[in-house]
Design brief:
By secondary structure, this protein is an alpha+beta fold. The chain is built from 4 helices and 12 strands; from the N terminus they run αββαβββββαβββββα. The chain has a 6-stranded mixed β-sheet with strand order 3-6-7-8-9-10, with helices on both faces. The protein has a two-stranded antiparallel sheet with strand order 1-2. A two-stranded antiparallel sheet has the order 4-5. The chain is globular and about 45 Å long.
Length: 188
């Protein structure tokens, strides 16, 4: 059994065979890197988005929280663990039922900023996701009460309050930042 430490370089296979534990790790540049432990705002927003997107995607695909995705980043194996992932049944058929990391790039990944993270970090991470085949990246900023939607062409849009988030990639899904934060019980 391989022990997950930041100092030990691992192969992707070794990383994927690590036992599950109390800490989630991402595989970056050959290392198991611990994810930040979520706080209340982060967890509440993750739950709200999971429920909202899950209700929309029934019969269309999967919405999963904290699921590792097998990708390539700058030519190297990469396995980020996103706060939320949506992958359609067109990309990953409904018949795929394995207790494994997501084997293909999803349509949408959602990341929620933690207090020690910056939007600039996620701008670079969004570029890495797009280079790996992800089609949309949403970054939720709990402090600014906003959702920034990144498109693969480098364009992004910041949504606040009651601005509807509508996307041709996600037909029929329409939600607002206010709705997300209300469902998370962070605002009235």
């Amino acid at each position: 059994m391989v022990k997950a430490t930041i100092g030990n370089k691992l192969t992707l296979e070794e990383f994927l065979s690590l036992p599950e534990g109390d800490v989630n790790y991402e595989f970056v540049d050959g290392y198991a890197v611990p994810k930040v432990s979520p706080k209340f705002f982060h967890s509440a927003l993750q739950r709200a988005l999971l429920f909202l997107i899950y209700a929309w995607c029934k019969g269309k695909g999967r919405t999963v929280a904290e699921w590792a995705i097998i990708l390539k980043r700058k030519g190297k194996d990469w396995a980020p663990v996103t706060d939320l992932t949506y992958v359609s049944y067109e990309r990953l058929p409904k018949s795929w039922q394995r207790n494994e990391a997501c084997p293909i790039p999803p349509e949408l990944v959602i990341e929620i900023l933690s207090p020690d993270q910056t939007m600039k970090e996620f701008e670079e991470k969004a570029r890495d996701y797009f280079a790996a085949g992800v089609l949309r990246v949403w970054v939720v900023d709990p402090e600014a009460m906003s959702i920034r939607v990144f498109l693969s062409d480098g364009v992004s849009q910041v949504y606040i309050d009651n601005m509807p988030i509508v996307d041709t990639l996600l037909p029929g899904l329409e939600l607002t930042v206010r709705q997300v934060f209300q469902d998370a019980e962070l605002i009235d």
